[in-house]
Amino acid sequence: MTDLVTVGETMLRLSPPDNERLETATELELRAAGAESNVAVAATRLGTDAVWTSKLPDSPLGRRVTSELESYGLETAPVWSDEGRQGTYYIEFAGEPRGTDVIYDRANAAVTSARAEELPTGRIRESEWFYTSGITPALSDTLEETTETLLWTATDAGTKTAFDLNYRSKLWSPEAARETLTDLFEHVDVLVTAVRDAENVLGVEGSDEAIARELARTWEFETVVLTLGAEGALAHHDGEITRQPAFETETHDPIGTGDAFVGAFLAERIAGGDVASALEYGAATAALKRTIPGDIAIVTPDEVAGVIDAEGSGISR
Amino acid sequence: MTDLVTVGETMLRLSPPDNERLETATELELRAAGAESNVAVAATRLGTDAVWTSKLPDSPLGRRVTSELESYGLETAPVWSDEGRQGTYYIEFAGEPRGTDVIYDRANAAVTSARAEELPTGRIRESEWFYTSGITPALSDTLEETTETLLWTATDAGTKTAFDLNYRSKLWSPEAARETLTDLFEHVDVLVTAVRDAENVLGVEGSDEAIARELARTWEFETVVLTLGAEGALAHHDGEITRQPAFETETHDPIGTGDAFVGAFLAERIAGGDVASALEYGAATAALKRTIPGDIAIVTPDEVAGVIDAEGSGISR
Amino acid sequence: MTDLVTVGETMLRLSPPDNERLETATELELRAAGAESNVAVAATRLGTDAVWTSKLPDSPLGRRVTSELESYGLETAPVWSDEGRQGTYYIEFAGEPRGTDVIYDRANAAVTSARAEELPTGRIRESEWFYTSGITPALSDTLEETTETLLWTATDAGTKTAFDLNYRSKLWSPEAARETLTDLFEHVDVLVTAVRDAENVLGVEGSDEAIARELARTWEFETVVLTLGAEGALAHHDGEITRQPAFETETHDPIGTGDAFVGAFLAERIAGGDVASALEYGAATAALKRTIPGDIAIVTPDEVAGVIDAEGSGISR
Amino acid sequence: MTDLVTVGETMLRLSPPDNERLETATELELRAAGAESNVAVAATRLGTDAVWTSKLPDSPLGRRVTSELESYGLETAPVWSDEGRQGTYYIEFAGEPRGTDVIYDRANAAVTSARAEELPTGRIRESEWFYTSGITPALSDTLEETTETLLWTATDAGTKTAFDLNYRSKLWSPEAARETLTDLFEHVDVLVTAVRDAENVLGVEGSDEAIARELARTWEFETVVLTLGAEGALAHHDGEITRQPAFETETHDPIGTGDAFVGAFLAERIAGGDVASALEYGAATAALKRTIPGDIAIVTPDEVAGVIDAEGSGISR
Amino acid sequence: MTDLVTVGETMLRLSPPDNERLETATELELRAAGAESNVAVAATRLGTDAVWTSKLPDSPLGRRVTSELESYGLETAPVWSDEGRQGTYYIEFAGEPRGTDVIYDRANAAVTSARAEELPTGRIRESEWFYTSGITPALSDTLEETTETLLWTATDAGTKTAFDLNYRSKLWSPEAARETLTDLFEHVDVLVTAVRDAENVLGVEGSDEAIARELARTWEFETVVLTLGAEGALAHHDGEITRQPAFETETHDPIGTGDAFVGAFLAERIAGGDVASALEYGAATAALKRTIPGDIAIVTPDEVAGVIDAEGSGISR
Amino acid sequence: MTDLVTVGETMLRLSPPDNERLETATELELRAAGAESNVAVAATRLGTDAVWTSKLPDSPLGRRVTSELESYGLETAPVWSDEGRQGTYYIEFAGEPRGTDVIYDRANAAVTSARAEELPTGRIRESEWFYTSGITPALSDTLEETTETLLWTATDAGTKTAFDLNYRSKLWSPEAARETLTDLFEHVDVLVTAVRDAENVLGVEGSDEAIARELARTWEFETVVLTLGAEGALAHHDGEITRQPAFETETHDPIGTGDAFVGAFLAERIAGGDVASALEYGAATAALKRTIPGDIAIVTPDEVAGVIDAEGSGISR
């Protein structure tokens, strides 16, 4: 019996150090990165018994992915494939007004051909929770079908499902995303979404509270979590709205903030915490993530508790 | 027919990484750097057909300079020399109150012996614009004479001339600069100068508008551009004053900001833009430059347009 | 009028430093690499007026390729594309018995859709020589057709053609290669091939001299060059066999040795040298290449002459 | 049911890059290293279901150890301790005549206080094999006692025991080692030792065959494996001597060669191979190890098979 | 005759670059660090004839310490020991809310066994000033006794004594510190302490002025210097209170700020400056320190003067 | 009373890492390097009380030189100058046939204007030995005169003089060197020279023994030491020839081998050793030097003794 199963693509992230431009870079930093494994690592670090699965090429590049994920303590259960490539993304970090730019090179990744029957669906059936994000069905027609099957498998087995909308404009249009994602929502218990995606993709408007209520009403989600950027987050659950401000943070690497939030939110829910404490746990973990290089929240429960208790500040010696 | 010819020294810039002190550094980053090539690269990146020329030692160090400049797409037309060294400068980056310190090691560089007849003056005659800066005549008596000859050659051939005052206190005194530079001004159509140099070197006083007007009146410049640091820039042209605020930027490396501004200003003027749009183009490129390591604005027209349109912000994925 | 046009894919090469394994690497060195641009750079460095063309994605990654090639002094004439990715390859360097391993990630590169009519075939018609290799037709059906059209275009215009068999077992089988390549041979004047590929792919057997004669006889090549690894090279031309031993070298990076050889061979032929001196020039350049990191022979004519004259040895100070 | 349990200290290894001296180093490479985890990783990579355990400080440094080991796919079962430090060793690599120098800084490591009852001895009882080395009892009086208890526990439960003598002159004298180690031998089924340690520590003399026979006879080992450096290895088993020459290798990092040999030897024995094939498997893995930075044989079964089949040579592309 | 002798442990500081976590670091930066040598270097750089002494292991690691300290111009007079290890500390830098974390690994360092009679106490007797900090007696019972003997030796010889309370919560409790330190105070002329340590360790309360007066009154210090963080510092001397605000600074590495302050304060006092100018000198040096990587204020008198005169700002070229 | 004073230029050495070409390097390693300081450090490390002096620019670059030299334990006594630059040299390391190439950038270094009366000649008079090399008079006319004055000063005061011919073809012709150097020889007691320089510069021919005898006879040297590369060295002293073979070594950086030899030779002579033991000491230190990055022999007496005793081999742990 596992606490949490996540499914989705993990890429290799290639980034020039020290704000160099890709066009002139002579070296690249290499890290594993993907929404679903980011969430699974964050949850694992915080006490959840999680497993991540996907389809990876049977090559040093595919093993590079599991090697890093396992170094964080996560259990991985990949399907190894002789077909398909290892997805990558290039990221050029920069301050404003240049901004940080992402170039996906993930077409034809091994995972894009993953059918549900290849994946360890038994693990999903035996798990308390299942998580994937809106990136997964965006990657291929096969994965669109697979995502629906996995969500159905979970709900059919009584496994709770959490889903982060995670809209990526470089993968599909808002219209395409809306059509696909709303079909999946009947199998989703907990929806997480940035408020701007709720507006832009789902077409829901109004105050953030109104949006949360409308989402919950329309698609009958048990819980809706809206992330509000610097404003923190807000949840609708059992008809009630709970707000959580963001913790102050000095940002070293912003990528993966949302995944850290979701991973910690789920960890706290799985550990029996209520929505309010899960939001707080998520916000504290997200604040820590932003101080850490890479997509992944390499944190400890003590550190998260320290943020919540407003300790951990300055120099500890 | 070329759009723009620039002439001036390009050095090798040696800087310790990560705010280390020169006194204790064990490695140095190496980049090509020089006002006139900085301007030429910025203009080239933004669509200008530019060429840079200078006199370089016929050695791996001289080739190191052209190699980097050509990697940015710039055409170089160096004169290769068996005499003279490759100029360098050491730069130690630091926050306040240490401040960033430059040590020039450029005496006896090959370029300091460059006479006009050695240089490809035909390219200047056939070009629409010619650019050099006040650094060039400061480097040697020969270059002082060469600078005057080149400016005369340009105006004689109907090539427009742009000149950045670029006062460097480590090269000469304000008095020496004033005497030399004001002799050149009769051949200059567009003068660019920091407002503090107009005061300190040229002895012009008053409000920034008054200074611009006074400069234009005294030396009959077609256009005067005053750079005002965080206040942006201001131009006097056809009797009118145009102001351009600076775009907000997160500074990674401030060196070369002024050259990025001038290169983009000229690119836009050459492309037919008016002074106002050239100022805006210059300011946007300058803001981008500050996010980029090194002296040089490795930018694209889309990025500059994005700054002007206030796009390009946050993380694009 | 250009001396040499080359067409073929240039990839980004990603390699872990210091013999690290890909599976555990945290950084990768990044360089441009491709047989046809390797050849073009080597020729350019040695005085040839060469141009390389291909189809590249209109992205920082595509510009990364031209940026590096132009830094070596090569003229590039890419077709920029909104479709297709930037091909890459990963290379893990290791001594024996681990050996050096290459993982291609070049499927669906922009170049794989390049049709002859998109490419600057006019440059080929106006050039003295045209070069491509057996890698190009192996990359896609479109490129197989394109390769034939380009070779036909060249011979039709009186442009001499050189072709390196360059068999890659990770791209196709010997049988598939044989079928495709032998169809192209009627348009080829100079064939270069490793002797083992002549045996393995073309099925020619016997002593190396016999193989060279048999290749020349069967496909009526003007010149056949066999590379023999540590044994050097051998050419058949005008019915005569010329042998060239390899120069001794301390290998730092063996990749691109053959391309350095071909680039220098062609440079010397273009400069009017006979086959014997071209072989010698090729062998000397190949020896230098092996001391240089990356795929590309960043050399000077003086250095190549120094190897031939047995100078350049020890420490020069 | 596990195939193999290993127990012993894993240190953090700190080494200056590029042959720098420790006295002048400004950065250090950081890796996990320890005979027993080296053996366990090598076995795991080759298909064995292995687990490593030890006592580690409950700190980022202790987690640094398990993080790296798990990245190689090894299961770790550490006891976390609030007492004791993380052992380290500094290693300065150099060619002859400087030689490679090790400075241990492992006194008072958490593991030195590990008592058998703290460790997961149940895992040993349920395992097919147990492995530790002569380093473990050398580290403290407590560990001397613990080692004996663990070996006794294993043999009592029918778990086979393998033991590498691994004499370290910086930890104890030959006399002290002899006294302690020979007391343990009654619980050891498979003894591995360098021939020079058999002579120097155990005082056995003669030809290598004679030494192996004498060791087997005196202490009734089921199997004795003598490692002979460049001469390969030799085993005595069932009264027979089997010899295995070393595979040729280009050494990048020699540390951990013996552990790679043992890990692969055990993996092959566990998989049902006979002593001869286990020796061959060990020798091939040892040869691969020497091409890999760090103490650990990050290899695949295919690579080991490739060495045995004399493939994997040159550049694979 | 020396101006200043300092005694105390200097460690090797190991820090992951670029905000990486220790748990996942693959390289560490290495620097010498210790309150008493930090103070001695700062003073030396500013014209004081200082010497630092301690007990170090006779190993490359011990020599690594003196090598770096001497590179800054400091005279070192270590006692070399065959016993005891080189103390280290690991530091993980991070922004809030992660915060910067220190892991000491200094138990059983060679210095912890240093008895006064081993150390060059003659140098203390012949020096104008002696300095140590509250870290020294916290390291071992031996060092507690040694510290008292050294302070007694100094005052007995007419050498002035300065003492920085430097409370470290990872070494001892406030109560233990109070008991030990207050016993030493009868031999202390100048006490420096952070105001929070005065409160937390010494139990003195009230306004900062009241605290300074109370400290001076209770233990009859000639001078009391309270450091107030961002508020600067305050001294009580001859019954008068002098305040010094902090200079603005952009912090690159905050470690060693207090030691830079003390070193410069003492340098100015030794040079004949009054308390007010010594405070100013200390504050300016502390501001510079924060821009410099590592524990140590590698500064020049000109730079400190520049901060006081509000020069040194921006880019100097 | 000092054992040894050396005078000569110390440069900053700039080298691309990992066999990169200067033309394409993006970072450079930075080290202090100069024959006379190399000799002084080697001697210091081996127990000699040595001091090095020269004229350096009063800048971070000049301090970079003394900082590094003092880190090795050497006493430096520089004259600080406001005129003249810091000499540098660029070195590109490569295997054959590329070979290692040096580009000097040392013209107009501060030292080139050093007159004897500026330098601490009192230290020479009070020293047992004085050393400089043939590089010093090659650097400027002033230094030619200064070298003669210093040598005269030494012999006048009874200080023994050692001189390494150190011919540098990039500084002067053999003829110019011969004319200048032979004028100095009347003040030289111990001449060291590579045998090829004796032939090429001094025009002495014959077997190596004949050359040594001829040198000793012609210029009445007390001792002549000929270095013979891989053949080791040979001395003529008191009419006797002593030979010393080279110790085997794995070369990491060959620069400074001769200086290491001379420094150790002098250290052993100063310590009372005879010529044979000094040659052996020199050869052992030279062998160690070749394993160490940089120009300087950072060695210990134990290590040198270990080479002589044929210990120190393999891995010590």
UniProtKB/TrEMBL annotation, chains A, B, C, D, E, F:
Alphabetical keyword list: Kinase, Transferase
GO MF annotations in UniProt: kinase activity
Keyword Protein biosynthesis: no
Domain Carbohydrate kinase PfkB: 1-297
InterPro entries membership: Carb_kinase_PfkB-like (IPR052700), KDG_KDGal_kin_Halo (IPR054871), PfkB_dom (IPR011611), Ribo/fructo_kinase (IPR002139), Ribokinase-like (IPR029056)
Domain of life: Archaea
Family affiliation: Belongs to the carbohydrate kinase PfkB family.
The protein, known as: PfkB domain protein
Lineage: Archaea, Methanobacteriati, Methanobacteriota, Stenosarchaea group, Halobacteria
